[in-house]
């Protein structure tokens, strides 16, 4: 599908969930209707293993419970395993900043129902350096695609007047060097060539 682009200060476009998805050998491990994670702590830590190294994210269940629960549900059911980081959106004036996007790439075989947007105006979170945020086409359509910010990206925050922006729901606590390598990887426009493989995403501990 075509990539939905919107004007965004500091980046080449807004996070979009509309991409083609790769095949995945882990598909047999996924259930049709995985259980919703219960009794999650205020902070949930997950490890994103990629072919370039590991990224550890701490998700803020206390302030963004809907978004965090959704991400953990995808991880617990192995829906991220075998996917990719497929997009790099570099700041035109500062190419070492921007965001990378990965996840299920709107694969029909991996999709779970979309979730309600938890805007930054509601959660109090912001798109700072290292923030993890959900991609969507329009508000309340986020499913299994996410972005990792390199440098502050205030253009993704909610704005006065009705623009709800995107749902920040945690931050990278280890592996920002890997995120920067993905941001700087070869690309055709914003499409990584080749995509960076996500081996697995799982809770730590």
Polypeptide structure, described:
Helices cover 12% and strands 30% of the residues. It has 3 helices and 9 strands. A hairpin with a 2-residue loop joins strand 8 (187-188) and strand 9 (191-203). The protein starts with 42 loop residues before the first strand and ends with a strand.
What secondary-structure arrangement, pairings included, does this model have?
Blueprint: E1 43-50, E2 53-60, H1 65-76, E3 84-90, E4 98-103, H2 120-123, E5 131-134, E6 145-150, E7 167-174, H3 176-183, E8 187-188, E9 191-203
Antiparallel strand pairs: 1-2, 1-9, 2-7, 3-4, 3-9, 4-6, 5-6, 5-7, 8-9
Summarize the entry for a quick read:
This protein has 205 residues and is mostly beta strands. The chain has a single domain, classed as Cyclophilin-like (Cyclophilin, Beta Barrel), CATH 2.40.100. It contains 3 helices and 9 strands, in the order E-E-H-E-E-H-E-E-E-H-E-E.
Low-confidence stretches: 1-12, 19-25
Q: How many strands, which pairing sense, and closed or not: the largest β-sheet?
A: 8 strands, antiparallel, barrel
Number of strands: 9
Named at the architecture level, the CATH assignment is Beta Barrel
The figure for the number of domains is 1
Could you estimate the helical fraction of the residues in percent?
A: 10-25%
């Amino acid at each position: 599908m075509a990539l939905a682009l919107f004007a965004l200060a500091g980046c080449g476009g807004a996070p979009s969930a509309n991409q083609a998805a790769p095949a995945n050998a882990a598909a047999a491990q996924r259930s049709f209707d995985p259980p919703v994670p219960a009794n999650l702590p205020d902070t949930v830590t997950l490890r994103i293993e990629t072919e370039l190294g590991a990224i550890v994210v701490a998700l803020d269940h206390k302030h963004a419970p809907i978004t965090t629960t959704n991400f953990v549900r995808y991880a617990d059911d192995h829906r991220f395993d075998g996917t990719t980081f497929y997009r790099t959106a570099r700041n035109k004036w500062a190419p070492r900043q921007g965001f990378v996007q990965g996840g299920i790439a709107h694969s029909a075989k991996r999709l779970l129902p979309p979730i309600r947007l938890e805007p930054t105006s509601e959660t109090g979170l912001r798109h700072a350096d290292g923030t993890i945020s959900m991609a969507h086409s329009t508000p309340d359509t986020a499913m299994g695609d996410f972005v990792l910010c390199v440098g502050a990206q205030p253009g993704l925050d909610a704005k006065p007047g009705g623009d709800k922006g995107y749902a920040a729901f945690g931050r990278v606590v280890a592996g920002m060097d890997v995120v920067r390598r993905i941001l700087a990887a070869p690309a055709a426009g914003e499409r990584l060539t080749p995509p960076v493989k996500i081996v697995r995403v799982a809770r730590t501990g």
